[in-house]
């Protein structure tokens, strides 16, 4: 059985559309998540960009809060779970784990219960009601409709499944946000200059790739949910 970490690795294959692998452009097939290089569905999509495959730093505190909502944990356990689910190729440094937990505790979003022994790993962290509210607000809010969001969204989907929340609903909300932005860009193309139209096309190609990823992920939510719950 393929684990969540392996699925995340496959996601990188899908998202890194320039990479080292050649890209082919068949007529009108929808993308399928496989071990092979990603195949686009339109010859109109140029090989002019690479999608970022790692989460922005701002998601680390929220991801740790989400993991703590699942269950209280030591810093070592949080690092292990973060790396397994979200840190493919970029493990979270221990120092960042504990500094982040310290800031979260300072802000009243987690509490740390000391246990016998020395060192930060002897402290067991738990989320507070304020922290739970922040996780709920973050998960419910679609990411801004712009490129380079996939791993932030992937983090949200995995945490939603882990916490028994509506992952399909989050993907639907993200799809709607992207579609609104694409309509806005279409209007820019109609009324703008050639430069405006080319810039709008560039943004729309990114958004179209995002929408295909959302469709593929939503189609496989059941399998991903089983992997997350079995981990």
In short:
Helix content is about 60%, strand content about 5%. It is mainly α and about 230 residues long. The longest helix has 26 residues, at about 195-220.
What does this protein structure show overall?
- A hairpin with an 8-residue loop joins strand 2 and strand 3.
- Helix 2 (59-70) runs parallel beside helix 6 (150-162) and helix 7 packs antiparallel against helix 8 (194-219).
- By secondary structure, the chain is mostly helical.
- Mean pLDDT is 75; it is low at 1-57.
- It has helices at 4-15, 59-70, 75-86, 94-106, 129-140, 150-162, 167-191, 194-219, 221-230; strands spanning 73-74, 110-114, 123-127.
- 29% of the residues are buried.
- The protein is built from nine helices and three strands, in the order ααβααββααααα.
- It has a three-stranded antiparallel β-sheet with strand order 1-3-2.
What characteristics describe this protein?
231 residues; mainly alpha; 3-stranded antiparallel sheet; 58% helix; disordered N terminus
Strand order of the largest sheet: 1-3-2
Number of strands: 3
Query: What's the helix-strand series?
Result: HHEHHEEHHHHH
Distance between the termini: 11 Å
Low-confidence stretches: 1-57
């Amino acid at each position: 059985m393929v684990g969540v970490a392996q699925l995340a690795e496959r996601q990188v294959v899908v998202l890194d559309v320039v990479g080292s692998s050649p890209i082919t452009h068949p007529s009108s097939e929808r993308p399928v998540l496989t071990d092979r290089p990603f195949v686009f569905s339109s010859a109109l999509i140029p090989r002019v960009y690479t999608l970022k495959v790692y989460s922005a730093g701002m998601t680390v505190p929220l991801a740790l809060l989400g993991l703590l909502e699942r269950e209280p944990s030591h810093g070592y356990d949080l690092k292990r779970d973060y790396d397994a689910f979200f840190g493919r190729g970029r493990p979270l440094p221990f120092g960042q784990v504990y500094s982040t937990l310290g800031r979260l505790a300072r802000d009243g979003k987690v509490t740390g219960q000391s246990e016998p022994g020395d060192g930060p790993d002897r402290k067991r962290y738990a989320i507070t009601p304020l922290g739970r509210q922040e996780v709920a607000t973050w998960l419910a809010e679609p990411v801004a409709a712009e490129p380079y969001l996939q791993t932030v969204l992937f983090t949200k989907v995995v945490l939603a499944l882990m916490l028994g929340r509506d992952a399909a609903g989050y993907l639907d909300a993200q799809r709607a946000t992207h579609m609104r932005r694409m309509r806005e860009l279409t209007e820019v193309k109609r009324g703008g200059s050639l430069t405006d139209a080319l810039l709008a096309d560039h943004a729309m190609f990114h958004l179209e790739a995002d929408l295909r990823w959302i469709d593929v992920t939503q189609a496989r939510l059941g399998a991903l949910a089983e992997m997350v719950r079995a981990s």
